[in-house]
Amino acid sequence: YYDITRAGVNKHTAMLELAELLNIPKEKVAGIGDNLNDLELLQQVSWGIAMANAKPEVQEAAPLILNYSNAEDGVARLIQALQKAYRLQSLLETEREK
């Protein structure tokens, strides 16, 4: 497996550029990875997440390890869980305002 990119360009630098373009504070960015080319991203973001099938070095670099692999739709499951949590939080805030 080889990852060929231009010098100085990687997932971390791309994430920084995208976050800046979208006016998203760096502190609110998550990174999800499973391979060695994800290491710098996971080490630099506020929310580093490794897949269940991630290489050991990647799992060590991430504060959170998903219970599901790529083959088990781990990222989709995470997004669904975050959507449910967001809806629950919104519901609780609405109830508090009453």
Structure explained in plain terms:
- It is a single chain.
- This protein is mainly α and 98 residues long.
- Helices cover 48% and strands 10% of the residues.
- Helix 3 links the parallel strand 2 and strand 3.
- The longest helix has 24 residues, at 74-97.
- The mean pLDDT is 91.
List keywords for this structure.
98 residues; mainly alpha; three-stranded parallel β-sheet; 4 helices; 48% helix
Short description:
The chain is mainly alpha-helical. It has helices at 11-21, 39-44, 56-61, 74-97, and strands at residues 30-33, 47-50, 64-65. It has a three-stranded parallel sheet.
| Mean pLDDT, all residues | 91
What amount of the residues lies in strands? Answer: 5-15%
* Rg, alpha carbons: 16 Å
Strand count: 3
Order of helices and strands: HEHEHEH
Poorly predicted runs of 5 or more residues: none
Structural class: mainly alpha
